[in-house]
Amino acid sequence: MKFYFSFSLLLAAYTALGQSGTVNYPQGYFQNPLDIPITLAGNFGESRPNHFHTGIDLKTDGKENLKVKAAADGYVSRISISHSGYGNAIYITHPNGYTTLYGHLNDFYPALQQYVVAQQYAQESWAVDLKLNPNQFVVTNGQFIAFSGTTGGSTGPHVHFEIRDSKTLHVLNAALFGLPIKDNMPPVPKSIAIYNSNSIYQQTPVILPLKKNGNEYTLTTADYKVTSDQVRIAVRADDFMNGSTNSLGIYEMKLFLDEKLQASWMLNDIDFDYNRYMNAFADYKLKEEGKGWYQTLFKLKGNKIANYTFLNNKNGVLDLSDKQAHKVRIEMKDAAGNNAVVNFSLTATGAAVSAASCNNNWEANTPNEVSTANLSFKTNALALYDDICFQYSEATAPGGYSKTVQVMDSKIPIQTYSELGIKVLKLIPFNLRSKLVFIHRIKAASLPGNNPQDAMAATYDKGMAWASVRTFGSYYVAVDTVPPVIKMLAKGTNLATATKLQFTVAEKITSVKKVRAELDGKWLRFVRAGNTYTYTFDERCPKGKHKLMITATDENDNEATTTFNFTR
Q1: d(Cα 174, Cα 114) in Å, to the nearest integer?
Q2: How many CA atoms lie within 13 A of 209 on its CB side?
Q3: How far is CA 215 from CA 132, 186, 187, 189, 339, in A?
Q4: Dist CA 357 CA 353 (whole Å)
Q5: pTM of the model as a whole
Q6: How far apart are CA 379 and CA 359, in angstroms?
Q7: pLDDT tens digits for range 502-531
Q8: Do residues 214 and 274 make contact, with C-beta atoms less than 8 angstroms apart?
């Protein structure tokens, strides 16, 4: 059977029309990829650390290995296998101009699974990214394509489902395509944050709880007095749906002042190149302080995303300079059209707040750098979301090869990688210069997979240690000569009744860069889940005596090798 594919957007092409935010997607073309009703563990555009959530997470009743089906006719255009991100994922390209993605899967349907395994052995790599042509694996609407799982960066069994524009590769809000999602529950606004017009990183916003009053929400004080006559507003709110206890993200918000629209945004289209700008769309600093995600109804200087459907000429700043009471209304709704409204009044009692004095002001949209005897830090013009008053300090690093430098605060996010150099203050033998690391705690949310790490590899040049970093915080130079630790999980060496081989690889300081396993001198396919590697016995390991050799390498090329002799 041949599959003739066209990129023509016969039913596709959405339109975002100014303030109305109208979108038109084909309704009923895609079906539920599971045999159970759709309930969501996460929705499109939901705020996540360093990114918007780009799909809808379909619950699988807490189970793995439910059958996953093609949502429409098409062909398998891509397969990706990784221990992070989507894990095992299938991409299906459809003739109407869209591509669907199914992530966190276990095994694929037999013919596709056999093909993928063959490619892994050909490349001698379990992690692969395979592009397929239109006639290799044609699928029909409702055809079984894979078993559900919890692979990659998943924290529990579910299927991550996306719909993308095949031409632009933008990911679209799958909840707007007429999938059978039962939802008559409106969003629930919790609180608002009020900022003045200065940098959000150089102020502490006023956080005000909201209370439900009939069919709307209000402040506990109907007319709230603010000290600045130029203010901005962010909202913390959750959405919910029938049959699920999970909190979800808001699809659309609008801000009105005296019935005039001041700002609005809609989450129906995400460009992966701009996904990290979620750190500017929501207040990252408040989230890091444990106060939840506050989504802004204003635009920061360095925010480049295009999801705003309207902004006043001050990027969402509200002018209260006449000292009169002004009515504020915030409207929000979910993808099903359920809505909630917040009403209150604001009155300014003071003038615009002047920016605090700063000896080293770093501005958004321009390169910035600092250079001292012990530190060099350079950013490009895209690094900052808003202006910051750059600060750093130095302290003794016991056992380190440098001072400990505290570069700003890790609660302030950075968009792009920046070049950090730290002066090495102790003599480092030549053979250890390739083993330098920056000791710096990196949270799991900033890394592939779910594991944090305590350091990153650095390079040596002219008395300085260098690395590209993407977070502010504390850094100092150390040396890492400790290889990963490999541990076999087999009980004994007689595996006549065993069905699988497993081992773990633990890296204390940085991360595991490469693991290779060979059975009797030939590469053997182990499946990685976190730090555990599993091989299920098949024809590549016949009955008899065998030698398994495992080599693991970390970021600094420290290498460990383990040999395991066993009998089947």
Answers
A1: 30
A2: 4
A3: 52, 10, 12, 12, 10
A4: 12
A5: 0.92
A6: 18
A7: 999 999 999 999 999 999 999 999 999 989
A8: no
